[in-house]
Amino acid sequence: MLEKLGENIKLARKRRKLTTIQVAERADINRSTLTEIEKGNPSVSMGAYFNTLRVFGLQDDFLKLAADDEYGRKLQDIELVK
Question: What's the Cα-to-Cα distance from 6 to each of 29, 36, 48, 74, rounded to whole Å?
Fold first, then answer.
């Protein structure tokens, strides 16, 4: 999943015609960190991923993660029935 996220971040950067240096500076991360993000490296902090999304104005997408936890809701409903 992180690989797909990295690909999407890379596409967002290219669509906006931004260089890796520009994005890294705006996200306050190293260029090498951005390269790892675009590869989907799991050792990069979530904060770095978030800061990168913020550069593109996609930070609200981050809030959508697990917003509709279908499996969790089913488990909760089972407990409520008991």
Answer: 15, 8, 12, 30
